Amino acid sequence: MITNTVKNELSRIVGDENASFSREELVCYSYDATNKLSLPDAVVFPSTPEEISLILKMANSEGFPVIPRGAGTGFSGGSVPVEGGVVVSFERMKKIIEIDTENLIAVVEPGVVTWDLQQEVEKLGLFYPPDPSSLKFSTIGGNIAECAGGPRAVKYGVTKDYVLGLEAVLPTGEIINTGVRTAKGVVGYDLTKLLVGSEGTLAIVTKAVLKLLPLPEATKTMLAAFPKMGDAARAVSAIIRVKVVPATLEIMDRVSIRCVEEYSKAGLPDVEAMLLIEVDGPKEGLERDCRTVEAICKEHGATEFRAAEGKDEVKKLWQARRSISPSLYRIKPNKINEDIVVPRSKIPELVEGLGRISAERGVLIASFGHAGDGNIHVNVMYDKKSVKEAQDAEAAVVDVFKLTLELRGTISGEHGVGIAKQKYLEMELTPAVIATMKSIKAALDPKGILNPGKIFPKAVEAADAEHKVPL
Asked: Which of 13, 41, 204, 429 is deepest in the core (most CB within 10 A)?
């Protein structure tokens, strides 16, 4: 628990109206999309890096944790205050400071919603590609903390590929600027890339310089339906082999298709698998690429192939795709949502392996996601009221991770480690690698006050019981 002296000082730093200690408001900042709940001792809403610096300096002297928070849309528990402390929310730091159309950069505060930035730059004929499923709610700061990706990653990459520089506050309170505003820069260590994806454990980002691209001239969205999941997976590999790089290449299995169709009534075909494909670029050549994609899909057994007609149909298809995750709760009340990645050429083997695991463990597995870059969202469905179902689901997750690593993949492509994947970290990383990461954390955060209890294996259950929120 923080002391009354600390509470008074927090109120002085950010203003009485921008600090909260009431249980009702603290509960609102106690969880993210994992629904793992842990109560903070306070929530503050700073407006400047200087205010954050003062909070961190006080945290070092008084010994309380500080947890940065964007919109709380993460799937790994990264913003959950597992050891209590002070949540720093960026709801007041949401300015788009600059859009430089000559140098193709934007400068933004961390509380800017990803969708809002995209809409503003597109008005100027520019393009910010990262598009996580939560883009209409998630913030740039949270995207940076988790190195968010999205469907367009197959062609355009992920958040780290668009962060040129950062203003950040170190755990000890120093304000630093990393990176550049230029296309190149190799002076010293790349601290920018170190901070991107560090899950709010190494610094608190207060400003970001982001790379923009010219807006693609034209886009075409297509749907391909397959009677077999394996055929759809092989079509993905074939599309990439002929060097057509779609802007998006999404895959959905039968469970996902059925659930989202019941949920959204989007008119999706009743098949075992579906690909949602988007090609963009200059109008010249776009139709050629589309014809190539269509031919490959049909060669691999597609029973239906069609292009979306008009913006309304495109919007409807993408709304359906982004609705898959919530729609799955129609099957079972609980799910374990993993975001494994394998080399694209291994997707057919992954699909076969997931089917085998589902049958052997007796659990339903729904798979969908960014097949174009090998990033598949594997959802193990269960009912936690059944001890056996819960145990089988956990065992299936371990099987999925083992399969992923056997295929030379990684156990997380977008969601991060947070608290959700801590116990699996050593499956992928060697002791030497983990020790190196811990030494970096200790160097920047010697007192361990910034977002403690994340990434590295730790007995989260041992956190003070007083912080746990009863369900």
From this structure: 204
